[in-house]
Every structure is written in structure tokens, then in C-alpha cells.
Amino acid sequence: LQKKVKESIDLAYNRIFQFHSKQKVKNIFYKDKLQNKLSYKYLPIESVGIYVPGGTASYPSTVLMNAIPAIIAGVKRIVMVNPRNKGKQNPGVLYAAKKCGIKEIYSIGGAQAIAALAYGTKKIIKVNKIVGPGNLYVTNAKKEIFGEVGIDIIAGPSEITVVGDKYSNPDWIASDLIAQAEHDKLSQSILISKDKNLISKVKKSLSTQLKKLPRKLIATKSLKSNGIFINISSDKKLVEVINKIAPEHLELNIINYKNVVNKIINAGSIFLGKYSAEAFGDYLAGTNHVLPTSGSAKFLSGLSVYDFYKRISYINLSKKGIETLGPSVITLANFEGLEGHAKSVELRI
Asked: Is the pLDDT assigned to residue 196 strictly greater than 70?
């Protein structure tokens, strides 16, 4: 592996680790006036499987984004599955795994890799949760096994919404739309602006930049099928449209982003100002790039340390506690027609 690539992976690892290590959980301990003790405790998930795509391209960044939060949470067993590309394991992916201390790696992919992690095989011990992106087969397999094991999110094709104004650089915006479109022909790239002139300039720039792009066919198909220009009249309408789209990535490439950012409640990750290219979020800004897609940012968040914990509640009742509160439990149990519940409290009183 080239020294420059190793150094970039090292930098990404350090920045992602630094940001995620600030995500702290706090156990709750509470004692009421009747001396009843209630607790809520965070415990790391015992084993996690990370799916790293590799059939057509390989992603060291995916290893870092999925493994680092698990490491910080204290997950004891982290398993990586990564299909070979042209018969070989990708050295960047392996180096990222080594940085994360992952020692259990299987060269498998697709829906069958998800099944192996969920149910176990003669060689692979099943895990408790599966995280990481994949193609349509991988995504549907994750849907199938949810409940048997945990999963992170059902991630659809990648997407970006960029907001520009008359001060925005049209070439920069066009490059950000292309960066998302080159992922997948199903990717979604949207530009919203009050300035029609900017939209025209971005359209021209897209044509010019696409000519030189190695993944030109994928990006062009994506932009033609799922690319949208939206001309909008007011900030109020802008906020309304963004919250309805609930984009995975949102770039506010506008001068007055402070006027609208706090009104935006549905987005996976928001990039503020003209220098904040979404590509930074994919690699080494420090935040996570596993984000909700297809409008699911209305009820989901990006991957974090919190996703690798489970929580247990503890109840320790005192004699005074059951004597004082018990009659109300008996009343409610009888009201619901659950006499066995009522009896279990009555006997103690």
C-alpha cells in the first residue's frame, strides 16, 4: 500500500476516533422517597459484524466509520466481511482493519455473507448486530434477518441536496452533485436555489465536468434519472422543502446559512458554508458517513457510539414501596383483566 494512502487512513482514523470518543453515555441511578431504587445501565453489544463492500470498489473509509464507534463502545468481538475484488482482498481495507485491531476477517460478500453473520456457519460464529452498507441484495438480506440480530439502518442509494445562492461557485456545486452521482446510477442529487442564473451555470458546468470523469456513465445516468433543480422563492419555502426531502447529506453553500440552519430538523448530516464539501464527511471530517437515506432522516440518525450499546433497566423495590404503590398496581391489573398480575402483588402485601 502506498505510504500516502496509509498516512491518509491514519489521519482519518485519528479524526474519526477523536470525534466519536466525545459521544458519552451516562448510566442513571435514581432513588425515590419510598427507597425504591431504579437504574438504567448502558452495556456494549458483545459481537458485531461489519459488512464492507468490495465487489466493484473497496472502501477503507467504511471500515473506519463502522468499527471505530464499536471500539469506543467496548464491543469485544468485531468481525469484518469483505468480498474480494478480482480475486484479491483490497490492501487499503485490510490496513484500515489492522488500524482498528480487527483480527477476524472473512472474504465473503452478498446476501450470503449477511446470512453467515446472522445465523452462523461451521466456520463463522454468529454475531449480535450487523452494520455497514451494501448493494440491493445486502440491504434486503439485512431487512430479512432483522429481529434475529440487530442492524444499523436500511440504507438506500446515496443522496445530496445542495442549496446555493448568487454568491456560490457553480463549478464547486456541480462537482458536489457529481461526487454523489458517481456512487450509483440510483443516487439522488438535488440543487435548490432562489437564483435561476446559478442553476443555469451549474447545468453548464455539469456537462463540462462529466466529460472528464472516469465514472461518467454512472454519474450521467444518475443525474438524468434522479437529478433535480429546484428554483425556490423564499427561505420559508426552502426550509419546508428540505424538511420534506430529509436528505442524507445537505450542503448549505449560501452566505446566510445561519438564518435557516436551525429551522432544518430533517437531515442526516449538514455541511455549512462554501468550503464544507460533502466529500470531507465521507472520509475524515470526523463525523460518521453511515447516514439515513430515502427520507428516513425524519426518524433516524447517522451511525454513532450509541448504536453499539444496549440498555438494561434495574428495579429494586423496598417493603414500604410495594405496600404504598401496590394497591394502584392491583387496581390497574384488575382493570385490564389480568388477575394473575394483581395476585402476584397482593401476595407480597
From this structure: yes
For residue 227, what pLDDT band results from cuts at 50, 70 and 90? very high
C-alpha cell at 254: 449560501
User: Cα(8)–Cα(161) distance, rounded to whole angstroms?
Assistant: 27
Please give the DSSP secondary-structure letter assigned to residue 88: B
Over range 217-232, report the average pLDDT: 96
Average of per-residue pLDDT values in the chain: 96
The span from the CA of 346 to the CA of 349, in Å, is 5
Three state DSSP letters for 219-240 = HHHHHHHHEEEEECCCHHHHHH
Is residue 328 classed exposed, middle or buried when 0-12, 13-18 and 19+ CB atoms within 10 A define those classes?
A: exposed
In this model, does residue 87 exceed pLDDT 90?
no
Q: Which residues are catalytic?
A: 248-249
Name the β-bridge partners of 48: 78, 129
State the pTM of this model. Answer: 0.93
Which of these ranges, 51-60, 117-126, 200-209, 212-221, has the smallest mean pLDDT? 51-60
How far is 304 from 300, CA to CA, in rounded Å? 12
Q: Which amino acid is at 246?
A: A
* Nearest in space to 302 (alpha carbons), one of 348, 268, 258, 255: 268
pLDDT higher than threshold 70 for residue 107: yes
Residue 309 near residue 128 (C-beta atoms within 8 A): no
Q: Are 316 and 25 in contact (CB under 8 A)?
A: no
pLDDT, one tens digit per residue, over 313-343 is 999 999 999 999 999 999 999 999 999 999 9
**Would the CA dihedral through 275, 53, 60, 76 be positive or negative?**
positive
Q: Which residues on adjacent β-strands are paired with residue 131?
A: 50
Which residues lie across from 228 on neighbouring strands? 190
pLDDT (average), residues 41-48: 98
* CA 170, 173, 175, 180 torsion-angle sign: negative
Cα distances from 127 to residues 68, 180, 184, in angstroms, run 17, 32, 29
- Give me Rg for the CA atoms of the chain: 25
